[in-house]
Structures are given as structure tokens and as C-alpha cells.
Amino acid sequence: ETSLSVRNYDYGKWAGEVIAAIGYESICCFGGSFGAGILAKAMCVVPEKIKGAVLYVPSGIKNAPPIQYGAGMMLPMLMYWRTRQEKWLKKCMLPMAVAEENITDDIYETAKLSITHTKVKTGMPSNVARRQIRKCKAPTLIIAAEKDCLFPAKGVIPRADKIIVNGMTYLLKNRGHMSYLTQKEKEIIVEFL
Q1: In Å, how far from its chain's centre is CA 142?
Q2: Cα angle at 164 between 9 and 154, to 5 degrees?
Q3: Sheet holding 27-32, edge to edge
């Protein structure tokens, strides 16, 4: 297995290869968090393959400095790996969820499986360069969460407005990185795509 670099555009090239390998010239894409960072990289290096894009709580647009969120999540994650006690898992999730009631059963189970059974990468896809992403003319919806500790809306939305040619933004008020979508928000995404 090869782990690609989050610092350059390798993930974008890889995404382009996947799109070609499954037999499409271009497609509409949805990416969340790390996946949104991969999609943003693809928009930079294979813009012709992206027909439309939704970037949900995206990395790669305006990432928060790791020092801002790292300690609050890493210590509980390490303790969970060591003890497998559920209390540490919830403490690990809280900085991303903002409040315990935002950790729905499906969010909890997805995070638990991810943290338990995968190697968690320490870095997220780096911020894309303005001149690179402006090559992509595809309609793009950027959804950012106001209280996201990893990719806060106060940084993501203004930068997205400046660098994405055919973009529109949507703010998830009072929500963090791990959050639910309302039925209306789900419909906005489906209609957009």
C-alpha cells in the first residue's frame, strides 16, 4: 500500500485516475472532510474530470493550525486505543461534535470504526493554491460548519469565495465538524448535484 502525500496534488491525480478507470470522462463528486480535500486537489489538477462538486466541511480550503485542535483530540484518542473505554472515544469526538447531543448513533459508530480499525493520518490535505483551483469551472457548493475546529467556516467561506470560480457557500450554524444535516440541507445538496 502507498500512502500519498497530503502536501502536494498526488491525491488529485489519483482521483483523476479513478474517474478514468471507472469509465467516465467527467462526474459530479461529493467529498467530506479529508475526502473534500482530495476533491479540491482533483479540481486543481484534473478540472476537466469534475462536472460538479460538493465540498462538505472541507480540508484543503482553509485548514486550522493543528496546534488549535490537536491536543484536545489526540490524548483522548491515545487513551481510547490503549484502554478501549468508550468514555475516551466520546472525549475524542467532542471537539469535533461541539456537544454530546450532536454525536448521533450513526456518527458515533462511523467514528468508532474509523478510530478503531484504520491508521489515522496526522495531516489533512494542505490548502490548495488559488491559481490551481481557479482552473476548475465546475459548479461547486462549499458547506462549512461555524464551530468546526478543523476547518472553521470563518476561514473556509471567505477563502472559498475568493478562490473558487463557480462556487456558492452554505453555513452550518452552531455546528461542528461532526454534525447532522437537516432534511432541507440534504435536499439542497441533491438538487445542486
Answers
A1: 10
A2: 100
A3: 27-32, 50-56, 140-145, 167-172
CA separation (Å) from 181 to 81, 102, 145? Answer: 29, 11, 11
User: pLDDT per residue over 150-177, tens digit each?
Assistant: 999 999 999 999 999 999 999 999 999 9
Residue 165 contacts residue 89 (beta carbons within 8 Å): no
Length of the chain, in residues: 193
Distance of CA 19 to the CA centre of its chain: 19
Residues of the chain with pLDDT under 50: none
CA distances (Å), 162 to each of 56, 81, 130, in order? 17, 40, 8
